[in-house]
Protein 1
Amino acid sequence: MTSTRTSAVRVSGLEKSFDDLHVLRGVDLEVAPGSIFALLGSNGAGKTTLVRILSTLLRADAGSASVAGYDVATQAADVRASISLTGQFAAVDELLSGRENLVLVANLRHLKDPGAIADDLLARFSLTDAGSRKASTYSGGMRRRLDIAMSLIGDPPVIFLDEPTTGLDPQARLEVWDVVKELAGQGTTVLLTTQYLDEAEQLADRIAILHEGRIIADGTLAELKQLLPPAEIEYVEKQPTLEEIFLAVVGTESKGSR
Ligand SMILES: Nc1ncnc2c1ncn2[C@@H]1O[C@H](COP(=O)(O)OP(=O)(O)OP(=O)(O)O)[C@@H](O)[C@H]1O
Ligand SMILES: [Mg+2]
C-alpha cells in the first residue's frame, strides 16, 4: 500500500538481544508519512527497545531501519535531526516555568526567537495561562503536554511517543490524544507505543502487535477486525474489540467470554 520510498519509518528484519535474551527476532514494519502508528505489546515485548533503536540510542544486532529516509545505523546524525523522542519519564524541569522549559530547549537547539517559539507552543497546547507557573504545579496531563510541546521544538517530521498516556487520568489522556491527532493533522508522523488498546483504537491509522520478538499482526483497525470472525449475533452483529483481537492473536484466553 505504502511505497517503501516514501515511508517515514521502515524496519526490516530487525533483531536485538540482551545477552541471551532475544528480544527482537526479525521485526518488519512501515509507517506512512503523516500517519499515526501504534505499536502494541505486553510488558517486556520490546517496544521501548525498538523505539530506542529507531531513535539511534541503541544499535540493532541485525536487520535495517530507516527514519525519514535515513539509515539509523549509518546516518544517525540525520535521523536525530529528523526526530523527537518522548519517553515515559518527562524531560520537564520542575523548577522552571512551562515557558522557561520551552525557551531552554529552543536555546539548546540554537533557534531564533526562542520566546516566540515558546509562546506559540504554549498556545497550541492550551498552556498559555499556566505558562509562567512552575512546572512542579502542573497536573500530570499538563506536564505531559508540556513534554510533548518541548519535543516538537524544531519541527521534527517524525515523533516517537513511548507510552504517552501511561499514568494519566481519562481527562488528561483525552488532552494528549487531541494533541497527537493535531500533530498528525499537520503532517507529522507519529509512532507511539501503548498498552492501552482503546488508545490505539482511537488514535492510530495503523496498529501493529509486537509479540515474542516479531510483529504478529499489522493493519488498520478494520483489517485487524477481520482477523476474528464477528461475535455471535444478538440483535445486531457485534464486531470484535481490539482487546479481543489482541488477546486472540497473542494467544491468551480472553476472560469472561461472551
Ligand atoms: N539494556 C538492557 N539490558 C538488558 N535487558 C534489557 C535492556 N533493555 C531491555 N531489556 C529487556 O528486554 C526486554 C524488552 O524490554 P522493553 O523495555 O523493550 O519492553 P517494553 O515492550 O517496552 O515493555 P514495557 O511495556 O514494560 O515498557 C525486557 O525483558 C527487558 O528486561
Ligand atoms: Mg517500554
Protein 2
Amino acid sequence: MPRHNHHHHGHGHGTIDGRASGWYNFLSKSFRRLAYRRIAKDVARSAPRSGAVLDIGTGPGVMLVELHRFRPDLELTGVDLSADMVAHAKRNLGERAAVRLADVAELPFEAERFDLVVASFSAHHWEDPAAGAAEIARVLRPGGRLLIYDFEHAPYDAIAGQSRLDDVSRGPFHVGLGRLMRSQRFEATATTGTQRS
Ligand SMILES: C[S@@+](CC[C@H](N)C(=O)[O-])C[C@H]1O[C@@H](n2cnc3c(N)ncnc32)[C@H](O)[C@@H]1O
C-alpha cells in the first residue's frame, strides 16, 4: 500500500523519500530561484546600459538567466573552474551568455574588458582570493564595479586588500531562507588612472 511505503525507506533516519523528496525538490528549486532573482535584481541596478558583465564561478548559470530577464541589454559572460558546471551553464543559458572554463586567478580576458564583475557564493571556494582579486581588478575598466554575494566567512578581507579596488563596503544581504539568510553583499570599485599598473 503506497501510504506505508515510507516505513521501508528509512523514514525518521534522515532520508527524504517518495512524495516528500518531490516536495523537497520543488521547494528548494523555488527558494533558489527566489534567491537568484534577488541577487540578479541587485546586480541589474548596478550595471550600466549595454554594459559587459562577468559572473565568476557561475555554476549552472541560474543567476545570469535571471539577470538576462531584467536586463536583456547587458552582454553576459560566465566562467567556472568546473567543466561540468560550464556544461550545465551552457545548457541553461544558450545564447544569453558566453560561458568559459576558467579560474578566477587566471582570467582569459583582456584588461579593462568588463563594466561589472559578480560572484555569488563562489568566493569562499577560491583557493587564492588575493590572486583572484588582482585578476578582477585587471579585467574591470576604471570605475567598474565588483559585487560579491557570499557567506560571512568568505575571504572579503583578502579581496579588499587588492590595491586597485577602492570604495569597499560590505553588509548583510537577505537572499532567502535558511543558511543563505546570513549572507553578505560586498562591493568595490576599480580605481582609475595612475594607480593602475
Ligand atoms: C556554490 S557554487 C555557486 C554557483 C553560482 N554562482 C550560484 O550562486 O549558485 C561555487 C562555484 O564556484 C566555482 N569555483 C570554485 N573555485 C573557483 C575558481 N577558483 N575560479 C572560478 N570558479 C570557481 C565552483 O566550481 C562552483 O561552480
